[in-house]
């Protein structure tokens, strides 16, 4: 499913594909995903700009080359997905919000029954696949790929 999704965008020169979000900037010390540079995003309570959630996203070759060439001057935030979104915010980039890249495990099972397969499945309460090594085979089977995908 991932390869089928990517092939639909492979001829686009500046494309950023993922499950786009705009969540709160976490300014409190000690919380998961705390942003030490929260002040750069304005007042407390502000949200991040739209960017693809960190579990899975794809960028075109042109954007990958842009990052490579400019890596010494691109600022890294504490969360890599925020960094990537920041690097593209001022560029002419086609942002594609692909909700099939951010299905919850239950969503994925429901969509599979409807014939609409997810590109990725995540257990959001642990920001990804909980116990991924232990559950990988089950995730592939429940996601419709079968045990042969392993």
Give a verbal description of the structure.
- The protein has 150 residues and is α/β, with parallel strands linked by helices.
- It has helices at 2-7, 61-70, 80-88, 105-113, 132-142, and strands at residues 15-21, 51-59, 94-97, 103-104, 121-122.
- 21% of the residues are buried.
- The strands form two sheets. It has a three-stranded mixed sheet with strand order 2-1-3. A two-stranded parallel sheet has the order 4-5.
- Helix 4 links the parallel strand 4 and strand 5 (121-122).
- The protein has two domains: 2-97, no CATH class; 102-149, no CATH class.
- It is globular.
Shape: globular
Give the domain tally: 2
Q: How many distinct beta strands?
A: 5
Order of helices and strands: HEEHHEEHEH
Q: What proportion strand?
A: 15-25%
Q: Helix share of residues?
A: 25-40%
- Helix-strand category: alpha/beta
Per-chain topology:
Layout: H1 2-7, E1 15-21, E2 51-59, H2 61-70, H3 80-88, E3 94-97, E4 103-104, H4 105-113, E5 121-122, H5 132-142
Parallel strand pairs: 1-3, 4-5
Antiparallel strand pairs: 1-2
Question: Which features characterize this protein?
Answer:
globular; single chain; 30% helix; 16% strand; two-stranded parallel ribbon; 150 residues; alpha/beta; three-stranded mixed β-sheet
Summarize this, please?
This protein is α/β, with parallel strands linked by helices and 150 residues long.
